[in-house]
Structure prediction request, 497 residues.
Amino acid sequence: MSENKEINQELQDLNELLKVRRIKLSELQGNNNDPFQIVKYEVTNRSKNIVDNFETLEGQAVSIAGRLMSKRGMGKASFCDIQDRDGRIQIYVRIDEIGEDKYENFKKFDIGDIIGVKGTVFKTHKGEISIKTSDIILLAKSLQPLPEKWHGLTNTDLRYRQRYLDLIVNPDVKKNFMVRSRIIKSMREFLDKRDFLEVDTPLLNVIPGGASAKPFITHHNSLDIDLYLRIAPELYLKRLIVGGLEKVYEIGRNFRNEGISIKHNPEFTMLELYEAYNDYKGMMELTETMVSNVAQEVLGTTKVMYQGTEVDLTPPWNRITMLEAVRQFTGIDFDNVTDDEEARKIAKEKNLSFEGNPSKGEILNLFFEEFVEEKLIQPTFIYDYPTEISPLTKRKPGKPEVTERFELFMTGREMANAYSELNDPIDQRERFVKQMQKREAGDEEAQIIDEDFLNALEYGMPPAGGLGIGIDRLIMLLTDSYSIRDVILFPTMKPRE
Prediction:
């Protein structure tokens, strides 16, 4: 009963706060001071700029804007904290500086209001860099009080649903998303310096190609056709390699109608690139160089802490074949496994579950996923993947049962996927046919034959290396974020009833 009383009292208090704030807005509007009628405010500086350049700006006039986060005093002088994109700064407001009328209006400002402040930069007796206010104005009225008495927002579900509040009251969250932006910018600059061309490919696809995944389906009314949200840009980017662009990349959203977890969101950001006349070993060099450069540029180090474990991004990274990795962690040498039936027998002995009649290569991959993947904490390239699970990859010369493919693993999860790209249109068609057989047997993720892509290959695609990096997962690593939802501004959530 006491808990219900406390909840009811909190609701009553909240309703009263909401009522008071709306009354204040009505009074402002009645006095022709509606803050929502203001269309522009000149901002000359941000908080961090003022703090970082105090020696230059001391005594200078500045104009800033931001959210009112605290008020202290309220006699004839007050101290307040203003929060803008880059941080917070203190302002000092005196009645004899701004006038009695403006000071009376200022006293009615609420925590959360958006205000504009003009004044001069100074340092208080306690040594805090501040702004001595000469003019102050309300730019937007906050009709909702900030959560938990302005001390933070800790409810994880609410943080993801109302990211705007999360950004207001949790400075580390805002910092992480600003770091995210710098990481992506750094990746672009790295590729631009290597003479890659950034391109855009369709998000709406007639055929869901380029990956093994279940797509989202929509319908175009005018054309009266079903379209698929992109699961990967691969097949379009390879068309551009055929067309002679030679070095292309795209950073954009992919969509997969699959599960949600700390590592998976239905829409996510990928970097995908292709380079003519290169191969998967060249992609290894590019990957480790780019990621280590980005970490050094954005974080100032190539050694990062992730969930209590140090991850060293300094090249060169470890390289090991899938077969060697399985042998190292399980003691089973698939080189000595004679056929598919024996492989399935070994899997059953290890209590691995599977459907249908998977091949030896598919069982090898199953062993890797079950017994190896989560143990790869430091950056590790696992390479030479079975042909059966790599339908878009060139076979390894002299060893046709495996392909020139690698995946990058860190912190026990996949970070990147790369190939020596299959450019033989006859072989590619055969691989697609086998994928279609899987699809007809009930595998919804198996790939569909893309006739236009095959037609493009028949005009001749040069040997090429291709790479895809999950940007969200990389940002999780570089910001020490536990869940992918912590690095996506608006993660997919089931609506509240």
Summary: The mean pLDDT is 94. The first helix runs from residue 2 to 30.
